[in-house]
Amino acid sequence: MAPAKVQPRVPRGMRDILPEQMIKRQYVMDLMRQVFESFGFEPLQTPVLELKETLMGKYGPEAEKLIYYAQHVQGSEELAMRYDLSVPLSRVSAMYRDLPKPFKRYQMAPVWRAERPQKGRYREFYQCDVDIVGSDSMLADAEIMSVIYEVLNRLGFRQFRILLNNRKILTGLGSYVGVPDEQLGGLYRAIDKLDKIGAEGVKEELLSNGLSHEAIARLMALLTARGSNRELLAELRARLQDYPRALAGVAELEEIVEALGALGVPESAYQVTFSMVRGLDYYTGPIYETVVDEPKIGSITGGGRYDELIGLFTNQGLPATGTSLGIERIIDVMDELGMFPPQIGRTVVQVLVTRFDVASLPASLQVATELRRAGISTELYMEDDALGKQIRYAVRKGVPYLVILGPDEAANDQVTLRHLARGEQETVARAELVSKLRQWASAGQTGELL
Amino acid sequence: MAPAKVQPRVPRGMRDILPEQMIKRQYVMDLMRQVFESFGFEPLQTPVLELKETLMGKYGPEAEKLIYYAQHVQGSEELAMRYDLSVPLSRVSAMYRDLPKPFKRYQMAPVWRAERPQKGRYREFYQCDVDIVGSDSMLADAEIMSVIYEVLNRLGFRQFRILLNNRKILTGLGSYVGVPDEQLGGLYRAIDKLDKIGAEGVKEELLSNGLSHEAIARLMALLTARGSNRELLAELRARLQDYPRALAGVAELEEIVEALGALGVPESAYQVTFSMVRGLDYYTGPIYETVVDEPKIGSITGGGRYDELIGLFTNQGLPATGTSLGIERIIDVMDELGMFPPQIGRTVVQVLVTRFDVASLPASLQVATELRRAGISTELYMEDDALGKQIRYAVRKGVPYLVILGPDEAANDQVTLRHLARGEQETVARAELVSKLRQWASAGQTGELL
Asked: From the CA atom positions of chain A, what is the Rg in Å?
C-alpha cells in the first residue's frame, strides 16, 4: 500500500508568494534598493536565527510574547527567530567595532511575529530597513525621511504624509501635564488613539488614567493644534519653554525640517504630529511614520532614533536612527490603486519559441539560445504538442511574443514572429530576429520590457 | 546599576555578511537572476517555516537529523525550518494545481541544516534553485544544464565540468553486478567515493559489501572507462543491453547530450560520469553536479530529476527536474581566483559630498540630492569635521570621488570634484557636475560604476 499523502499546506499566518505577485514584489524591492544605494546605504545580511538572549528585553513584554524560538535535535543553544532588523543591526554594530562610522546599511529580509493572523497581516513578513549608526546629527534623521520620500515618490505615491514627532517631546508633555515618567506608557497609549477614537475618546481615557480636567485641556490644545510645521514647532517652543527635555526635542525637529527643505522633500510630504507615538520601547528621539489617506491601511513606514539600543550590547554605545518600509502594505496600496506600470505583467517571459517537429527542433533550440544571450526572456515549449495548444499556453500565461519555426522557416534560415495581442505576424531572417523584436516592442503600446 | 551587557555574538555555524562581502553576493545573485529570467524561470517565494509533516520522510534519515524545528509560546502546530527548496516547491506544485505547466520557477533563499560547522560550511546558507515542474521531456534537463553553463560562463568560470549521470543507470548497474535493490544504498556510497579513495579503495569497500571479485571487475571497467560523452554512452549501451532500466537511462542521457549541442553548451563543459551519485534520496532520473579543478572545493552545483517527490503530496504526481547553485562556494572560488570585476568594490558609494560650514550646508544637501536623483550613489558627510578628516573617511571606505563645496564654490554656484586615487581635481559649474562625473568615470581606468 502506498503511504498516505501529506496534505500540502502552509503554517497558520504564512503564505507562498506565487510568480505574478513576486514580479510585483521584485519591482518594488529593486526600486527600493536603487534608492537606498543612491543614498550610500550598504547591503547587510544577518542570520535569521539569533541567540535568544540577543532578542530578550528589547521590544517590550507584549512584543516579546510573539517571538518564535528554534532548535535542532542535538543543539544546546537557545535560538530565536528574527523579530525585526534593528536589534540584529545593533548587535552587528556592537560586534564589529571597526566598521567605518557612520555605518549606513540597508537590509530587506523576513521577520517573524506570532500575531493573530488577519487580512493583510502575516506571521512571516518582510521588512525593508535603512539605518544610520554612529551619528547623532539630525541630518541622519532628515536623510532617513528623505529616503522614504524618494522611494514613495518614485513608486508613484502622491497622497502620503510622513508624520514626525519626538520621544523627547512626548516625555516633556508628560511633565507638562504632571504625568510621572513611570506612567508615560499609559499616556502614550491614550494619545496614540487620537486618530481612532477622536479627541473625546482620548479625553475620557486620560480622565480614567487620573489626569485632571485642566491637565487634559492643556494637553489636548497641543495635540489638536493646526498649522504649518514651523508654526506648530514655534507654538510648542513657546508653551514648553520651562521643560528643557521637550525643548531639546523641538530643536531637533526644527533642524530636521530645515534639512528636509534643502534635501528637496516638499513641505506637503511631512507633518509634525504630536499625537504620533510609535509602539516599540527602544525609541529615544525623533520618530516618523508614513500614512496614506486611501486606502485605509495603517502606516506604511515606521521608524525613529534609538540611541540606547546598541549600548545594551557594549559599553561603547552608539547613536542610531532608521526606518522600516512595509513592503507588504505598500504593495497592497499599489495593487488597490492600480499603480504598477504596464510592463509589470503576469510572467517574466517575453517570447515563447514554439516547436514544430523533430527535424526543426535543433533550430528552435538555437533560436532560444540566441534570444536568451541577447537578454530576452525566452521560454522554449517543451512538449511535442500541436501549434494551437502551444499558442493557447502562451495566451494563458500572458506571454506577448511567439516565435514559430517550421520546416519552411528552418530551410530558409527564417523565423515567423507573432505578437499575440495585436495579432500581427511577420517572417524574418533569423539573424534579424533580435533587432526586429526590439523594434516591435518599442513601437508597440504594450510596454513589454525588451 | 545598569543591566549586564549581552555579549554580541551569533549562533554556532551562523554568520553576518558585512557590506564588502554582500556587494559580491549581490553581483552574483543579480547575474543569476538575469540568466534565470532569460530562460523564462519565474520568481517564487515560500515561507521559511513549513509544517514538520511537509519535510518528514523526504531527505533520508541522516539528512532528517539536521532539520531545525520552531515554535512560539502559544503555538500548537509542529513547525520546521526549510531544509532545501525542492520539497517546498513540490508542496507548492501539489497545492496550486492551476499553475500553468510546465511550471518553471527560480528561488534564491536561505536553508538550515545543523551540520557540524567547519571552514566554508554554515548552518544557514543560501540555495539558488531553478526547477521545471510538469515536464518529463529531457529538454527540461538539458535546459537546466544549459542554465548552469550560462551562469558559470558569464561569471567568468572557464575550468568547470558538469558531471552527468542517471539514477536509472545506477540502478541498472546494481542489477548488472547482482546487487539487489535494497542494498543499492551501500553500492552508491562506495561508488561515490571513487574521487576520494581511488579505484583500489572502492574495490575494497565493495568486497567488504559482499560483492564478488568478478562483479567488481565488471563494475570498475564501466566506472573508469574514458572517452567522449557519446563513446561512453555507446559503450554502456552495448554492455547493458540486457538491462532495460539502465538502457532507459542511457537513452535519456543521449537525448540530453543531443539537446545540449543545439543549446550552445560546448562539449568540454560536461562529462558523463557513471561514478557520480548525488546524496539525496529523491532523485529518479538524470542527475548533474558541477566541479571545478581549482580550488578543490567540492561541487558548486547539484541537482537532478525527482519525478516522484510531488506525488508524496497528491494523487496526481508531476515529473520535475532542477538544480541548486551553491552561491557560497561559487563566491569562495571567485574570491580565491580574483574573478570579480574591478567595479565590484568595497562600498556602493561613488561620491562623498563633504560639508564645509553651516552657511554652505544647504548647498551641500542640494548637491547630494541632485546626484542621487541622477542615480549616482552619494553619501553626505554628516559630522561637522575638518576637511582632512572627511577625506580620510572617504579613502578608508574606498569611495572614488569627492565633492567639495566651500564658501567660494557656493557663492559661484560651483563645486570642486576630486578623484581620490588619481589625485585629479577640477572646479565646475554645479549644473555640469553630473555630466562631468560620468565623463571622468568613463575616461578613467578605475572602473567605477556611474
From this structure: 28
Contact A100 B396 (CB under 8 A): yes
Q: Are B284 and B307 in contact (CB under 8 A)?
A: yes
Strand B351-353 relative to strand B378-380, pairing? parallel
Closest to B45 (Cα-Cα) out of A431, A331, A96: A331
Tens-digit pLDDT profile for residues A5-25? 899 999 999 999 999 999 999
| A377 band by pLDDT with thresholds 50, 70 and 90 | very high
Looking at residue B377, its amino acid is S
B232 contact A CB<8A: no
Q: What is the mean pLDDT of residues A236-245?
A: 92
Q: Among B55, B29, B223, B178, which residue's Cα sits nearest to residue B109?
A: B29
d(CA B17, CA B13): 13
Q: Mean pLDDT in chain A?
A: 92
Where does B10-97 show beta strands of DSSP type E?
Answer: 42-43, 49-51, 68-72, 79-81
Name the residue in chain A with its Cα closest to that of B79.
A11
CB B29 within 8 A of CB B127: no
Length of chain A: 450
Question: What CATH architecture is A19-337?
Answer: 2-Layer Sandwich (3.30)
Q: How far apart are CA A287 and CA B398, in angstroms?
A: 32
Q: What mean pLDDT do residues A184-196 have?
A: 85
| Total count of residues recorded for chain B | 450
Mean predicted confidence (pLDDT) in A391-404:
95
- CA B266 from chain centre, in angstroms, equals 21
Residues from chain B that touch A380, judged by Cβ atoms under 8 A, are 40, 139, 143
Whether residue B324 contacts residue B306, with contact meaning beta carbons closer than 8 Å, is answered with no
Which A-chain residues 67-106 have CB contacts (< 8 A) with chain B?
Answer: 67-75, 77, 79, 81, 91-92, 94-96, 99-100, 102, 104-105
User: Across the interface, do B8 and A41 touch by the CB < 8 Å criterion?
Assistant: no
Whether residue B49 lies within 8 A of chain A, CB to CB, comes out as: yes
Domain spans, chain B = 19-337, 351-444
CB contact under 8 A, B45 and A17: yes
Buried b (16+ CB within 10 A) or exposed e, B61-95: eebbebbbbbbbeebeeebbbbbbbbbbbbbbbbe
Q: Do A40 and B377 make contact, defined as CB atoms within 8 angstroms?
A: yes
* Residue pLDDT, tens place only, A203-225: 999 898 888 898 899 899 888 88
DSSP letters, A76-145, are -S-EEE---SHHHHHHHHHH-TTS-SSEEEEEEEEEE--PPPBTTB-SEEEEEEEEEES---HHHHHHHH
Select the residue of A23, A363, A376 nearest B38 (Cβ to Cβ): A376
Distance CA A29, CA A22 (A): 10
Is B19-337's fold the same as B351-444's? no
Residue-wise pLDDT for A279-321, tens only, equals 767 899 999 999 998 888 889 999 999 999 999 999 989 999 9
C-alpha grid cell for residue B149?
Answer: 553553463
Contact A11 B349 (CB under 8 A): no
**DSSP class of A354:** -
Distance CA B340, CA B344 (A): 7
Suggest the residue from A48, A111, A145 to mutate for an interface test with chain B (most B CBs closer than 10 A): A48
* C-alpha distance across the termini of chain B, in Å: 52
Q: Give the DSSP H/E element, type plus range, for residue A428.
A: strand A424-429
- pTM of the entire predicted model: 0.94
State which CATH number among 3.40.50.800, 3.30.700.20, 3.30.70.3270, 3.40.47.10 fits the domain covering A351-444: 3.40.50.800
Mutate to test the interface with A, among B12, B37, B53, B281 (most CBs of A within 10 A): B37
